[in-house]
Specification:
Shape of chain B: flat
Strand content of chain A: 15-25%
Oligomer: heterodimer
Strand content of chain B: under 5%
CATH architecture of chain B: Orthogonal Bundle
Distance between the termini of chain B: 13 Å
CATH superfamily of chain A: P-loop containing nucleotide triphosphate hydrolases
Radius of gyration of chain A: 19 Å
Largest interface: A-B, 30 and 21 residues
Number of strands of chain B: 0
CATH architecture of chain A: 3-Layer(aba) Sandwich
Order of helices and strands of chain A: EHEEHEEEHHHHEHEHEEH
Strand order of the largest sheet of chain A: 6-7-8-3-9-10
CATH class of chain B: Mainly Alpha
CATH class of chain A: Alpha Beta
Largest sheet of chain A: 6 strands, mixed
Structural class of chain A: alpha/beta
Shape of chain A: globular
Number of helices of chain A: 9
Order of helices and strands of chain B: HHHHHHHHHHH
CATH topology of chain A: Rossmann fold
CATH superfamily of chain B: MetI-like
């Protein structure tokens, strides 16, 4: 599954297995199995699969919130031994703090992660400007002083993504970030994310069950099977960039979505074996 | 619409006035003896007559209650913080605390008298014992019901448990805290008064007992009136503070 690049992979999974506790480990009951993965610097990957297939487990492994039972994970050349500070996360629920304004919510990571943490008091003005600029780019320019409950769901999710990006992480992890939004807002946010990624070229790992979303945004789509949770398909998306929403109506796009849908459909049939 | 809002605001006052008038009518109409059940007018007269005495006792009850309540806030917050932030402490302390809370606090007064003698000691401690529990429970609940996603967002950044508690846990439990203060302050007045009834020579509780044994029913009732008024005033004060510090948690009722 190696990608053809000369630089070393940014995220590297080497035969990773994870059981949630020792009891499950003894029964050989793994949440994810035999994960091999090489993601190159700046690559946008999407992971799709049925719910409960271990996508979120995969995210926890990548961020170091969970340690693998077997196998090795390296991120940015370093073995993962604990929570990584080079990543930002956003979930389906925006989970903004209601007692903080949008601006203060976005600034939260800088109050925690080093080296910003110790400089926070002295460089607050500068950080605020950075946050305002970021909010501007996602179309929340006038909403910095508003509280989260004064924003719509889509706006809250934009703010949540800003919070994940404010400390300029090398890797952005998104766990079904647009799942709770209506179709139009979701497509708007696809474009917002595309533009942010295009401008800053951080790594993105997007977990989703929306196939169109994965094909539109990602360089590579991985299909995950359920019980055991493994990667069963790796599909390079060779659509030209920059991609416009119009591309989602082209036959090439549709045929890729169709193909991925086929893999998932095959998995959902009981007793099916996947040849890949 | 505006009239309706006004009506709603003044409704407690109107109800109070209505009850007082009804009370006066009944006691006058049936000519109820003032030794059994004094009329509002009689209570008012006696209140004015003894206002210096009542004020003295009321002040004593007030500051004793506030002292006990102050200790309750400190202990309640610390204990709540401890059991809300550690699963082990929660498991260990909670059942015992529930059992303790089920004990009638008036039953502690004789013991406290043996330890501290007649006076402010038992009163302060009774006020404390009766009012720290709701504070502890609310702080602990606020801390323990943190959303796991939010915790992940911070832990990915390398946040320690302490960071999560300070940045998210504490602010998040503030509405619970202020809500509990409103309950706790009224309980604290109950504690002080109960204790003063048997273990003090001053305070509203003492006034109630001595007025009762001297058959001065009007005075006894004015004592009750004063405790009620003080508790209500403090409740309103904390309610005001709550609205102005944690408005974000009450946006539903504000916009409605």
């Amino acid at each position: 599954m190696a990608t053809e690049s000369t630089s070393p992979p940014f995220v590297q999974f080497d035969d990773v297995w994870l059981a949630y506790n020792d009891e499950l480990l003894a029964q050989n009951n793994f949440a994810v199995e035999a994960i091999n993965l090489n993601v190159s610097q700046g690559e946008f990957i999407a992971i799709v699969g049925p719910s409960g297939c271990g996508k979120s487990t995969f995210m926890k492994l990548t961020t170091g919130l969970k340690m693998p039972s077997m196998g090795r994970i390296r991120v940015d050349g370093q073995p993962v031994t604990g929570p990584l500070k080079v990543s930002g996360m956003a979930f389906q629920a925006p989970s903004l703090l209601p007692w903080r304004t949008t601006l203060d919510n976005v600034l939260l990571p800088l109050e925690i992660v080093e080296p910003y943490r110790s400089q926070f008091k002295d460089r607050r003005k500068e950080f605020e400007e950075r946050a305002l600029k970021l909010l501007e780019t996602v179309g929340l320019g006038g909403y910095a002083k508003k509280f989260p409950w004064e924003l719509s769901g889509g706006m809250q999710q934009r703010a949540s993504i800003c919070r994940a990006l404010i400390h300029e992480p090398k890797m952005l992890l998104l766990d079904e970030p647009f799942g709770a939004l209506d179709a139009f807002t979701r497509e708007e946010l696809w474009c917002t994310l595309r533009d942010l990624w295009q401008a800053q070229k951080f790594n993105v790992i997007l977990v989703t069950h929306d196939l169109r979303e994965s094909v539109f945004l990602a360089d590579t789509v991985y299909v995950m099977s359920k019980g055991p949770g493994r990667f069963v398909v790796q599909r390079e998306i060779d659509l030209p960039r920059p991609r416009d929403l119009e591309i989602t109506y082209t036959p090439e796009f549709t045929s890729i979505v169709h193909e991925l849908r086929g893999h998932i459909g095959a998995m959902r049939k009981p007793g099916a074996t996947i040849n890949q | 619409m505006k009239n309706r809002k006004q009506l709603e605001r003044w409704s407690p006052m109107l109800l109070l006035v209505a009850i007082v008038i009804l009370w006066q009518i009944i006691t006058s109409a049936f000519n109820v003896s003032e030794f059994i059940f004094p009329s509002p007018l009689r209570i008012w007269e006696q209140t004015l007559e003894h206002k210096a005495t009542i004020a003295g006792h009321a002040w004593r009850t007030f500051w004793v209650t506030m002292a006990g309540f102050g200790i309750a806030i400190v202990v309640g917050v610390l204990l709540g913080f401890l059991i809300g932030s550690s699963r082990l402490a929660y498991a260990a302390v909670y059942p015992l605390m529930t059992a303790f809370n089920a004990l009638p606090k008036a039953a502690f007064v004789p013991i406290l008298v043996v330890w501290f003698g007649i006076g402010i000691g038992p009163a302060i401690l009774t006020a404390f014992l009766i009012s720290f529990f709701p504070i502890t429970v609310n702080i602990a609940t606020g801390l323990a019901t943190l959303e796991p996603e939010l915790e992940d967002v911070l832990r990915v950044l390398g946040a320690k448990r302490w960071d999560v508690l300070i940045k998210v846990g504490l602010p998040r439990s503030m509405p619970y805290f202020f809500g509990s203060l409103k309950v706790a302050i009224t309980l604290a007045f109950v504690g002080t008064t109960v204790s003063e009834m048997t273990a003090a020579n001053e305070g509203i509780g003492y006034l109630l007992i001595s007025a009762g044994s001297a058959m001065q029913m009007g005075l006894a009732f004015s004592g009750l009136l004063v405790v009620g008024a003080m508790a209500m005033a403090m409740y309103e004060l904390f309610s005001f503070i709550e609205k102005h510090t944690t408005g974000w948690a009450h946006r539903g009722s504000q916009s409605a």
